[in-house]
Specification:
Blueprint: H1 3-27, H2 42-49, E1 53-57, E2 63-66, H3 68-74, H4 78-81, H5 95-102, E3 111-117, E4 123-133, E5 138-145, H6 146-161, H7 171-184, E6 193-199, H8 202-209, H9 211-227, E7 234-239, E8 242-247, H10 252-267, E9 270-273, E10 276-279, E11 282-288, H11 296-312, E12 317-320, H12 325-347, E13 350-356, E14 358-359, E15 368-376, E16 382-383, H13 389-394, H14 398-415, H15 417-422, E17 425-429, H16 432-436, H17 438-449, E18 458-463, H18 464-469, H19 471-484, E19 487-493, E20 510-513, H20 515-518, H21 525-541, E21 544-547, H22 553-560, E22 566-567, E23 576-577, H23 581-585
Parallel strand pairs: 11-12, 15-17, 17-18, 18-19, 19-20, 20-21, 21-22
Antiparallel strand pairs: 1-2, 1-5, 3-4, 4-5, 6-8, 6-11, 7-8, 9-10, 13-15, 13-23, 14-22, 15-16
Helix pairs in contact: 1-6, 8-9, 14-17, 17-19
Length: about 575
Amino acid sequence: MSNEALYIVIALLAAFASLMAYMLFTKKAPEDNQPITDTTDPFALYLGNAVCGAVVLDASLKIAQINTVLCEHLGLTQAAVIGTPFSKHIASADQAIWQELTAHSDASGSTAQIALLAANNKQIQGKLSLQAIPANQELLVTFENQHQLLQYATEIEYRKTHDELTGLNNRKALEAYLNKTFESQSLFSKPIAMIYINVDQLKVVNDTCGHIAGDELLKQLVHILKNTDVTYDYLARVGGDEFALIKEDATIEQAEEVAEIIRSTVEDISFSWDDKNFRQSLSIGVALSSPRLCTITEIIGAADAACEQAKVAGKNRVHVHKDTRAASEDSRHQMRWVSRIQQAFIEDRFELFFQPIVALHHSDQYVHYELLIRYRDENNRFVSPNAFLPAAEKYGLSTQIDLWVLTTALDFLASNPEHTYKLQCCSINLSAHSLSSHQTRSAIAQLIIGCGFPPEKVCFEITETSAIKNLDEATAFIEEMKLIGCRFALDDFGTGFSSLGYLKSLNVDYLKIDGAFIRNIVHDKIDHAMVTAVASIGKEMHIATIAEFVENEEIKSTLSQMAVDYGQGFGFAKPMPLNDAVAYYNK
């Protein structure tokens, strides 16, 4: 959007605000000419909050009330202008325009370009708008400073493409830059190198010293990146702890050299905060454009994946993406699924299945199940989510899938009130993207509030990995939804026992023990001990435990002798279409 277009939008919003003020005022007109500080006067509230200059004129067109914005334009105090004719503050060349505007008894809706005269005789160009206040025979006048509005427009445009904290370009700007660069490339152009940077210690600093310290660390690192003795063409902040650097016309050796210089420079830095010192390091991924990496999505994905490999390998290192046939085929496979997922919403190819979760230590009827999504292909065969969810996660479609699952589940439960009455818990999976998206979390809360049955019947399952990766968002979301009444399960628990320290922060109701520990629990003493430990932790923290992948009678028998509360797996029941749930639990 151009600056001129933004100016028009802002001006329209200001005019709309004037109309709203008029409507508000006519509903309750003040009995006296109250001062601007009186918050019982609706116009005092409007004048105090208006972004443009605003003034209320009495029947003789003298100033009865004026806001601070217009006082600042004029360079005068409120006391100095109250009671003065408004015409006194209009430039002499525009006096005739003012006279013409106010010559008619109904001046409401009139507008004109006019110049106000400030105390220093400086003229301020702007748009004047009049709105009648019939209740008091007064006139509301608003003044939109053109120069100031253009400044606002410029600031809005800047914020759209820049990171507020660091002042760097943001991800949106990076994508626009790459799009333009790829479009201008020819068959003879040299490759583009993307250097994807992850700050290894940011989370440690945030958790230890708070986000103010983390923000300061990021600003110091940006200063280092800008002043490092390397040449590059573009630098952007693309995530909380992630940056992307572009070097055009580069070889892989040149790109790797730039990445290594940046890594080694930061490695020598120690960040200090409140007498605490943190050694810094970066994990860096490098990818080079090629016929197989020739789109924005592909090159960002490749550099990000290489950065992830650097972290997995121990952090503080540079990893170069290998453009192999296998990697290329995997990328093409995921891209095909992106198209199929988008088409699935249109053609209604997703279906919900349910898998019972069974109480291990009591025999009374317990209605609890997890909802599982399936894709129905062109031959009416059901495809497991393992085939398409990785593509949905990578290409930003997982939140759309989560919301589809939730709305479909709520519709089913609302349509089957007798079944829902007997239901103890319906578990619904949420992706990491949904946890990190404020918009999606807000949509989920609104859907639950309007569901029409007790929200405690809904349990959201979040994986241990996504919860830890988005700990602040996960904690806030859990607390918000538990106030509404929902329950939470931590899925795949035990895959990384580092999560034990975070468990105190996550107010969950269930721990779902990862199936990797359940499959061999009968014969493997270590797995048996691990499950025993998780069950013990759950008992101490009053969190129920659910064993996943309970595949046979031996596992069921072993679990029944332990402190695990519930089981789920083929040993109890395979996933079935959700429409069969009513009949299944009526047996």
